[in-house]
């Protein structure tokens, strides 16, 4: 069971989607001594990577593709990024309440 400081640190990894998406979870993963905090930092880091990868895919779709693919990619990746953003907020709240 995590103490309050560890809960806050784990929750900040998820909330960092608002201010430092890659940096904070990566630092916490390597510095944290608690396995649960490292677990949450790793999950947060992976969930922050998905929007970055989707942005790269959208840029790929922009070059030489049909207009339908471009619009579809924007819609698909926009919804995906929104869902992941909400998921990070929810997970941060769940860790604090845990």
Automatic annotation (TrEMBL):
Annotated membrane topology is: Multi-pass membrane protein
Q: Give a yes or no for keyword Transmembrane helix in this entry.
A: yes
Cellular compartment(s): Membrane
UniProt keywords, alphabetically: Membrane, Transmembrane, Transmembrane helix
**Parts of the chain that traverse the membrane:** 12-32, 44-63, 69-90
Identify this protein by name.
DUF4870 domain-containing protein
Q: Which Pfam families match?
A: MamF_MmsF
């Amino acid at each position: 069971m995590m103490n309050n400081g560890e809960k806050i640190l784990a929750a900040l990894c998820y909330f960092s989607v608002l201010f430092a998406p890659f940096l904070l979870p990566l630092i916490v993963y390597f510095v944290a001594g608690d396995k649960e905090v490292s677990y949450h930092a790793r999950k947060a880091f992976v969930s922050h990577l998905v929007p970055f990868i989707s942005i790269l895919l959208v840029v790929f779709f922009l070059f030489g593709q049909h207009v339908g693919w471009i619009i579809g990619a924007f819609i698909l990746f926009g919804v995906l990024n929104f869902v992941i953003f909400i998921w990070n907020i929810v997970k941060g709240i769940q860790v604090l309440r845990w």
